[in-house]
Structures
1.
Amino acid sequence: MARPREYDAARALDDIQRVFWARGYHGTSLQDLEAATGLRKQTLYREFGNKDAMYARALALYLDRDVGALVQGITGEVEMRPRLTALFNAVLAPVRAGDRSGCFLCNASVDHAEADPAIAEMVQNGLEATRRLMADTLALDPRYRNDDAARRAASIRLTAGYFGLRVMIRAGTPLDQLETVAQTVIDNV
């Protein structure tokens, strides 16, 4: 008879995500993951797989839970500009609270996507999902609703501005400059 699990796998995955998000793939050792979760190497491997699998699961959690919560937080807005404002305010809220962790998806794109095809695919899917969110938001405005080409071009620009802002957050850009960037991105739609 197998021994019952003595740990919370969901909490352990949260801990794994936090370490990878803060330190990146290459900056995270198995010892870091053991320390963060309180689990031994054998348990981590049995539950989550190797380091690549742990990183992929942490990124999948981010895309599902963290990005999902961001999207849920703005969908109540039924006009384009208020929805974009809500989105960029939600991105800046952690910065206002002192959190400069930025975007795990952005981090993964430069940290590990080139070396791991599975991560590269997840990153591309995340980028495309963000572009679609921008396109759906633009479709709330009559200028873009029936013009697919204009909506697509504007959604690509918005996505670039959004991820540029996320990178600037991680880089430590002062809040007033981040707010200016966010407002400029919104104003130039």
2.
Amino acid sequence: MREGQDALIRIEVDLNEACFGTEREISVESAVICTKCHGSGCADDVKPQMCQICKGRGETQQVTRSFIGQVMTSRPCANCQGYGSVIANPCRECAGDGRVRARQNISVKVPAGVETGNRIQMTGRGEVGPGGGPAGDLYVEIVQTPHEFLVREGNTLHLALGISMTAAALGTTISVETLDGPMPVVIKPGTQSAATVLIKGKGVTHLRGGGRGDLVVHVEVHTPTKLNKEQEELLAAFAKSRGEKEGESDMQRHDGGFFSKLFGR
């Protein structure tokens, strides 16, 4: 008997399943024990006979001469294909292989915190070996599908949140969708574009160990592009009340803050 090969199958999980874990029923086509001969490969309860060529060793040896002397080499026995035994009356169901191809349903427990590329090892659920040998392992590889709004980076989740110019200036509270359901995000008055709001413990579950990562909300302030006459006059009056003059800029000395974020230094 020989050990069977390992098998690999890929399954898709969404972000919610990857974060909290799930149980999935999968269908796998594999080599399984022949129920007719119970893995022996023989028909009518006949047992395999020892190969008379290799005397049950499964290999033959050959001695050849070379310039360094005699060299002994071993190779699988051609008579028994390396099994050490031969089947005089093979099973018709499996043709003497001791196994057949069949589809079986397997329940897979996907742990919380998995990500694309992670593999779940299921010992002994791979292919049965020739002659009814021990089965290999089944590896289930995870492929996480993209989320509509949330972007995953390790155990951290990122969410882009667009707000109006007035909401950024005055402040507001906005409900955002998280893996735990709707959650309020407080936008402080005077919030600038590219500001972030950190929500602790609302990211992805740690695969090894307890706790969860964080959710980072990235604020994008949307400047209005289509204004009617009344709105233009209101904004102009607002700028005048703040003492703003047309054409003026507010260039600032490099303090390391903005450029360190932009260029990573």
3.
Amino acid sequence: TAIPVVQQLSHLPIVADPSHGTGRRDKVLPMARAAIAAGADGLIIEVHPQPEKAMSDGAQSLTPDQFSETMRQLRRVAAAVDRTIAGPAA
């Protein structure tokens, strides 16, 4: 990932997009884990209550339950690399 390189070159926060970056729901979690471990300051993750009926980006959208599980796992990854994730714990 280029996240550490970009952080050295910029003072701006680095936000990763594992949804659009992969285009596949089954790849969002592994890409998000990698981004957090690499030092991303934020993530953009698409969520839709019925991804199969979404007008766009359904193939990469997580359901709310999948998003909750993703956040649970990302908090564990963040803790393993001495970081925290802001927001309410689920």
